[in-house]
Amino acid sequence: MRSIWNGAISFGLVSIPIKLVNATESHSISFRQIHTEDGGRIRYRKFCDLEDREVSAAEIGKGYEDADGSIVAITDDDLASLPLPTAKTIEIVAFVPADRIDPLQMDAAYYLAAGGAAAAKPYTLLREALKRSNKVAIAKYALRGRERLGMLRVVEDAIAMHALLWPDEVRAPEGVAPETDVTVNDKELDLADALMNTLGEVELTDLHDEYREALEEVLAAKATGDTPPSLPEHTGAGKVLDLMAALEKSVKDAKETRTEEAEVKPLHPQKKTARTPKTPEPKKSTSTKRTTKKATPPKKSTASTKKTTAKKTATPPKKTTPRRKSA
């Protein structure tokens, strides 16, 4: 990564040579201004209003417009010689808990790379000290013509710095919240909690820019002369009149979506194999065999019953014969 600023971190009496590199990158699609009649590029040319002629980039410098309209020229040497210790130094002024920093203050993010082998030891010392303290470092530095506030924290094995807005640059949320007095009851809060729990969490790495992907499809289609994909018909939800009904429906829809996702999962071979050992079919077949064995004894009792019945049947003729002789 190309460095955009070279300097040093001032940590008490310790000086750590570093290079500042961008920690983020933009994937947004940019457009050019064109002449709609023929597609020609619209370009901006820079003119000097005194000489009324176009000037090159080498002739352009910086200037400050004073209150009376006069221009004060400022050169790069003037900026480099500013009487500030932060002109080429990231000066750490304090260490505070991370939750002391309002996310509204956070701006661009940078990585601080060690500037050479000699910086490895003090760089590692600062990194490990930040890790053990569970704090972030607040620093001041100068970049692009102004002094800025920064926050240093550890990201994996590197030190990152977030540019911070000065406290007076953050606006108070005046006139933003609803001015109408509204009462929210416990049942509505319970439904809102249920909706939050049903939606669950998400891995941020699974999220992607669907707008950019759709725009890329449109650009690819127009570049080849094809018809761009049409926008699906949008069914507006209309104005919400019943908050409770809307919450209940949202919870129901979220649960159905989760159920559908859960039903799809067992179709994967790995999931199915994992559940097979839990099937209790062998135990059922074993119990059936045991029941059959236990059912065998009644056959013996049936046979003995037949023998007993036969003996009882044979007995009456013996008793009948003597009665006939007596007659």
Automatic annotation (TrEMBL):
It comes from the Bacteria. Residues 298-318 have a biased composition (Low complexity). InterPro entries: DNA_bd_Ku70/Ku80, Prok_Ku, SPOC-like_C_dom_sf. SMART domains: Ku78 (SM00559). Residues 286-297 have a biased composition (Basic residues). Residues 251-266 have a biased composition (Basic and acidic residues). The lineage of its organism: Bacteria, Bacillati, Actinomycetota, Actinomycetes, Kitasatosporales. Homodimer. Interacts with LigD. GO terms for biological process: DNA recombination; double-strand break repair via nonhomologous end joining. Belongs to the prokaryotic Ku family. With LigD forms a non-homologous end joining (NHEJ) DNA repair enzyme, which repairs dsDNA breaks with reduced fidelity. Binds linear dsDNA with 5'- and 3'- overhangs but not closed circular dsDNA nor ssDNA. Recruits and stimulates the ligase activity of LigD. Residues 251-327 are annotated as: Disordered. This is Non-homologous end joining protein Ku. Keywords: DNA damage, DNA recombination, DNA repair, DNA-binding. Pfam families: Ku. Residues 52-181 form the Ku domain.
